[in-house]
Amino acid sequence: MKTAKDIIKDLPLSVNDIARLTLEATEELGEAAQGRERTELILLLRRVIRAGVKAVQAEEHTVSFEEAAWASVAARAGRRASTLRDLRHFVRRMLRVESVAKRPLRGMNTRECRELLERAFGCSDHSFNKGRAILHSIFAYGLRQEWCGENPVSRIEPRRIREKEIVPLSPQEVQRLEQAAQLPEHREMRFSLHLLLYNGVRPQEVARLNERHIRPEQGRVIIPAAGSKTGGGRVLPLRKVKSLRGVPLRIPRNWQNRWRALRRAAGFSAGHWQADVCRHTFASYHAAYFRDLGALQLEMGHRSTDLLRSRYLNLPQVKQAKEYWNIR
Asked: What secondary structure, in 3-state letters, does 7-65 show?
């Protein structure tokens, strides 16, 4: 008959170790273990061991950060192509940080995540915050898959962004764009420029429009939810229709390159062009001329007028606004 020492000879534990562990388990069970016969107590302890093994296995189950990151991206396969490109770009930047790719997701803590963000995106507050949001989503996906027990990114504060002031285009600068759009090689961009300047449509939203969204017979343009930045659709009035007579109401192919070429033709270099300046120009002159923030809020697709009040308090003079709305 085997002795206790024979049974545990291959384990790095002594008989005393096992006795202490058995005693601790019995004490933890408390009343559930009190008064039981030997056989009943052994069965109870076996149940405890099996339950404990399953709990430990569940806690230890995880995947590498790299595997979790790409699985999180794959789970969002239905998103817009531009969104997926951004996700992949930011994930690749994180994976380039030394020793991160193979790190077990469950083993990563808040300090490691903060260091990862600093090393991958530390030079830009905007990139840091976007990287933080994506890293948070990776851990959120990992939680749903039971690859980790918490989301350590939740304890990392986003950086405070100081918005750069965007100065609206002057009426003279708007006229330069309009004149460049009259040139034969840029004529197909006249309608696009109209939407940018007189409807405040974002460049990315213009590029996604097609003939189904342009309703000249109804005097309106539809920005579909799938094509908008914020995921909310809106219907915009087609303003200054007389100036569009003879203009093809369509969005040309290769739009982004055509838009850059039009700006260059109007004398704007890449380094002196702010991405949202047309939208800001529209909002500023609309607020100064029409004095109706409620209507402007609906056209801009904002949830409230708070953003308008914070961004467009330095309004252009009414004289400039009249000049702007009377161009053409």
From this structure: HCCCCCCCHHHHHHHHHHHHHHHHHHCCCCCHHHHHHHHHHHHHHHHHHHHHHHCCCEH
